Model the fold of this input.
Amino acid sequence: MMYCPDVINAGKYQLKLVPATFEMAQQIFDIYNSDSENMIFWMPNGLYQTPEDVLVDYFKRPTRKQFLMYGIFRENEFLGEIGFSDITWNTRVAEIGYWVKKSERGQGVISAVLPEIEKFGFEELGFRKLVITSDVENKASRAVAEKFNYVQEGILRAEGVWPNGSVRDKIRYSKLKSEWEKEK
Done:
C-alpha cells in the first residue's frame, strides 16, 4: 500500500494533501477567477463558474486519471498546488503539475517545492520517470523544467484545446530516476 504523508515540509513552505472540501474548492475558485486569463495555462479545461465546478472537476469526476495533489502553503496561506497527475502505475510514470496564484509568481515558490515533490515521487512512490508538460507559450513553466534539468522530449502538436476553441501546441519534458540520482 502506498503511503502519502499529509504534509511534506519544503523549507518555508508546507505541502499539504488537498482535501475534497467545499472550503478548498472555494479557495481554488477564488484564485482562478481573480486571474482567469493567466490561470488558463494551468487549468485549460474551462472556466469555473462556481466553487461546485471546482469540486466536481478536482474530486468527483469518475473519468479523471489518477492524481495526487498537494496544496502549497506558507504559514497557512494557500498559494497554489503541486503534485502528480496522469499517474500510470504499471509503467511508474507520472506528470508533475503545478501552479501558484498571481502574487506568488516569480518568487521562487515552485523552485523551492519541486525538489521535494521529485524526491517523494522517485523515492517514496517509486516512479521511474517524471514528466512536465506545458503550453508552448508558457515561458515560466518551461523555465522551471529547464532549470531542473528536465529533458525536452518534443512538441506535441495541436495537443491542447482551450475553452475558446483555439488549438494549442504543448511541450513535453521528462526526467528519469537515474538522472535525478546523479543530481543528488
About this structure: The chain is about 30% helix and 35% strand.
